[in-house]
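Chain A, query sequence.
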Amino acid sequence: MKKFIAFFIDMLFSFAGFGYVIAVLTDQTVEGGFSLKGISMLFLALLMVAYFVVSKKFFGQSLGRKIMKISL
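Chain A, predicted structure.
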């Protein structure tokens, strides 16, 4: 259960955080959030994958795992 919550935290952080930044930069914000299309959505997907790879390589764990105190 802790791993699921950690993954949910990571997905929420990466999707909402990176998605909003991309939406602002590409002027794809809507009332109450953002709506990415095309290349912007692809870029978000790549950033989300990079988030997991970079956090694992350089920090040993993701933010969600750190919050949930899951060790390797």
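The chain has a mean pLDDT of 92. The first strand starts at residue 29 and ends at 30.
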